[in-house]
Design goal:
Elements: H1 3-13, H2 23-37, H3 41-50, H4 52-62, H5 73-82, E1 93-98, H6 104-115, E2 122-128, H7 131-139, E3 141-143, H8 144-161, E4 177-180, E5 185-188, H9 190-193, E6 197-200, E7 214-219, H10 228-241, E8 242-250, E9 264-267, E10 270-273
Length: 281
């Protein structure tokens, strides 16, 4: 049995569909799982058919969960200058973090929203296919040594990138978490943890269970694991869920191509919703 054949069987016997994930990435991860669990494809299929708990663990291992506070600091600085600086008059700000992993990206955003005075008018939905990382995000506890270093780097890059006075330079980041050096633990303060709605959600198969339109959607380093056809479908869905002029944030190695390319206008690191399409698409 090939990997492709197995993925079709997985789709048949479970709620998950990985058949349109990038061939190289999904094959590499599945083969690693086979080796680590000392399985062959036939045994893998048997367990998939008969053991729902095994399937959940398999999905957790297949999905890539890498995130950090203020990953790609230039993106966050541009987000503050190009988006947060200009939305003061909005009464409500709706934000979707799709593929939010263990939550560091979400809390990075919440810190900035609070610093700008926007926290109380922000609705944040954060979704991921992996229930384990959703639970980690809700808990809001991380390794202090690694994550504090990322936050401090963001502060340094703010000072390097912005001349003169700016609100970003005044943020007291340590107001937002408690530290335990002994336990190497950083814990997000409760007033931030209670803001986002973290839910398990499959971008490929499930409709988001809220009809709200978003001002900005973060989906960073997720599309890179999908094939071209699936990327286009997800991007069209994002376009439909954005307000006019809404912004999409993708990973540094991701972009918009194919028939959906004309539905967005690239502005720096962001893609703005565009309602003017070329007929050839």
């Amino acid at each position: 049995m090939t990997v492709k054949e197995y993925l079709l069987e997985l789709k048949k016997y479970s709620q998950y569909d990985f058949s349109e994930y990038s061939d190289n990435s999904i094959q590499r991860r599945l083969l690693k799982i086979l080796e680590e669990h000392e399985l062959d494809m036939n045994k893998l299929l048997e367990m998939t058919k008969n053991n729902p708990a095994f399937v959940e663990n398999l999905v957790n291992e297949i999905t890539v969960n890498t995130t950090e506070f203020y990953r790609d600091t230039d993106v966050w600085i541009e987000y503050a200058l190009s988006f947060l600086d200009k939305i003061k008059i909005k009464k409500v700000i709706n934000i979707w973090h799709a593929g939010s992993s263990s939550g560091q990206e979400v809390y990075s955003n919440l810190i900035l929203l609070d610093a700008y005075g926007y926290l109380n008018k922000s609705n944040i939905i954060a979704t991921d296919i992996n229930q384990v990382v959703i639970d980690e995000a809700k808990k809001g506890e991380y390794r202090l040594s690694t994550n504090l270093r990322n936050i401090e780097q963001f502060q340094k890059d703010i000072d390097k990138s912005i001349n003169g006075d700016h609100l970003l330079k005044t943020i007291d980041f340590k107001k937002y978490f408690s530290e335990s050096v002994t336990n190497d633990r950083l814990e997000i303060k409760q007033f931030l943890k209670k803001v986002p709605l973290f839910i398990k959600h499959d971008l490929v198969k499930e409709k988001l269970p809220y009809e709200v339109k978003f001002d900005i959607i973060f989906c960073r380093n997720v599309l890179i694991y999908f094939n071209t056809s699936l990327q286009s479908r997800i991007l069209k869905m994002f376009h439909d869920r954005l307000n006019n002029g809404g912004m999409l944030v993708l990973g540094s190695h991701e972009g918009v191509s194919g028939f959906v390319k004309t539905r967005f206008v690239k502005r720096g690191n962001f893609f703005a919703k565009n309602n003017i399409f070329h007929l050839k698409y």
